[in-house]
Amino acid sequence: MTVTGPTELLATWEAGLARQGSGRALLLHRAARPGADTDALLSVPLGERAADLFALRRALFGDRMQVTLDCADAECGAAMEFDLDAGELGAVRPVVPEGGLRVTEGDWVVEFRLPGAADLAAVATEATAVTDATDATDARRLLAARCVVSAVRGGRVATAAEVRRLPGRVLKRFAEAAEAADPGAELTLAIACPECGAATSAELDIAAYLWTELDAWAREVLLDVHLLASAYGWSEPEILALSPQRRRYYLELCADA
Ligand SMILES: [Zn+2]
Predict the structure, then answer these.
(1) Ligand 1 centre from 70 Cα, in Å?
(2) Beta carbons within 8 Å of 22's beta carbon, 6+ residues apart
(3) Mean pLDDT of the chain
(4) Ligand 1 mean position to 198 CA, how many Å?
(5) Residue 97: which pLDDT band, with cuts at 50, 70 and 90?
(6) Phi/psi of residue 161, each to 5°?
(7) 191 CA to centre of ligand 1 in angstroms
(8) Residue 153's beta-bridge partner residues?
(9) Which residues pair with 69 in a beta bridge?
C-alpha cells in the first residue's frame, strides 16, 4: 500500500471531524483505496473493507495494536490491556464459494451477495423510519432482502413482497453462509480476565479504532506545525514536507534553546 502523505491525511481528518461513524469509515476507506469511487467503496463486502482498513492502519501506525477493555464481571471490572496484530487481522478477506451464496431451504432457493456498508446504512435508515418497534429480526430481514440476487419459491420467481418477508429459516441460513464467506465482517474479541478468569467479549470496530488514532496523530502534527512555525517562521506545507524524524529533531532543538 502507498502510504498517504501527511497533507492528504490531515485533509481526511478535517473532513471526518464533521461526520459520524459511517462517514468517517468511508473517508478512511477512501484513504486506503485512493481512486476508488464512493459507490464501489460502499458496496465492498464488510470484511473486505475491514481488511483494507487494517492494511491502512499497518501502513500508518504499524502492526501492533494496543487494546484496552474492562472486565465484564461487575465485581471485578479490571482494566485489561492486550495487543492485536493488524497484519494477522487484515489477512482475513472474504471468499465467496463458487456458485455464490446459495441457500436452499424448504421450497426456497435464494442466491445472495455479501452485504456492504451501503446495505447497513440503508437498513439503519429504513429501520428507524418504521414507526412500530423494529427488532433485530426485522433488521436482519431488511438486510437479507437487500442482498437477494435471485429468489425462487416453489419453482417460480418470488415476488418483491415475498422477498421482503423471507422466512426465519432462510434468514438464518443466509447469516451462516455470509459469516462463513466473510468471517472478517464482524470481529468479536473474547478475552479471559487475568484477575478473575471471566470471559469478556467485545466487538473491534477497526474504522472507529483507526479514527481515534488518526485524530490523536492529527492534533499532534498540528501542534508540531504550530511550534515550528512559531520558532522558525516556516509555512505549514514546508513543515509537513519534513520527515517525522527531522520534525522531531528541530522540535528538540527548540526545546533545548
Ligand atoms: Zn475480571
Answers:
(1) 8
(2) 117, 120, 121
(3) 92
(4) 5
(5) confident
(6) -65, -40
(7) 10
(8) 108, 156
(9) 80
Whole-number Cα distances in Å, 50 to 21, 33, 56, 69 = 14, 12, 10, 20
Amino acid found at 154: G
Q: Is the pLDDT of residue 101 over 80?
A: yes
Residue recorded with cell 487494517? 54
Cα(42)–Cα(62) distance, integer angstroms: 25
Query: Alpha-carbon distance 119 to 143, whole Å?
Result: 7
As a residue count, the chain comes to 257
CB 114 within 8 A of CB 45: yes
Give 81 Cα–ligand 1 centroid separation in angstroms. Answer: 12
Average pLDDT over residues 50-65: 96
Q: What is the DSSP letter of 116?
A: B
d(CA 69, CA 191): 9
pLDDT of residue 3: 64
> Does residue 131 surpass a pLDDT of 60?
no
Q: Cα–Cα distance between 146 and 117 in angstroms, integer?
A: 12
